[in-house]
Amino acid sequence: MKKKSLMLLILLMVSLVSFGCSKSNTLSDKGDISTSNNSSQKSPQNIKSNRQNNNSEGNNSQVNNSDNNNNSQSNTQNNAQNNSQQNQTTNEGNSQKKNGQYVICIDPGHQAKGDMSQEPIGPGATQTKFKVSWGTQGVATKTPEYELTLSASKILKTYLEQMGFKVIMTRESNDVNITNAERATFANKNNADLVIRIHADGSEDSSVNGASLHIPAQNGQYTSKIYPKSNQCAEIMMSSMKGAGFKVNNIFQRSDLTGFNWSEVPAVLVEMGYMSNPEEDQKMAQKSYQEKMMKSIAEATQRYFSQN
Ligand SMILES: [Zn+2]
């Protein structure tokens, strides 16, 4: 009995140990599951809070994303700004450099004393015309045209030089004697790229007003070569002047002007307005008016060269 009891006890202990181990393993497995189950059961709040965390992370991430987006947007904007600034700088740099290669001849119309002796109207022409007149005069201000044209031309020169262009002037005082043919050949000899002639109009009809642009004629005997670029420049000038609020009557082709016929350089003659119109005469006498008009012409010149 004792032996049997001992044997039974041993068997019981062995089976208990063995069962315990397997149970422990099972518990351990279940424990893991139950932990997970417990966690899922116990922690809807945790889940919720996790979700909230997740959400808040999501929000954070959204916020971050949106910050990032904002940042990236603002970076993009900054980059765009920087790029555009760089481009602008580059463009300005280029245009400054480019402008510096161009020579613009400004011809302030007329002079204090006209020279009514004759000169050929074009190279090799038998037809002649007076060399240079003293121009017209303001009906209200009594300002002579040659004074107005020199004043406006000096303003134009300043604007163009500020843009980087090389500017030469046929005259910088009123007491000169330079014929229209000589003014044209002055631009030719100096390899000018454009001639801008500044004048003011006169009419027997005092109601007539507005600026006008004159260019070498397309079918002119001496002017057909320089017509296309002259016309292109005049179109841009008309648009720019109108944009600045000036009335521009039209672009007129001329084959009868000595100053165009002798020119090998594209040229535009700007009639600023009518000195025979009292109101326009008074406006043109104002420096601010001259500045506004010359600025629109300088800007047009810039645009013209950017296209050529
Ligand atoms: Zn004139």
TrEMBL record:
Presence of keyword Hydrolase: yes
Domain of life: Bacteria
Domain (MurNAc-LAA): residue spans on this chain: 184-302
Segment forming the signal sequence: 1-20
Ranges of biased composition (kind: Polar residues): 28-48
Keywords assigned by UniProt, alphabetized: Hydrolase, Signal
Start-end of Low complexity biased regions: 49-96
Record region (Disordered): 28-99
Protein name: N-acetylmuramoyl-L-alanine amidase
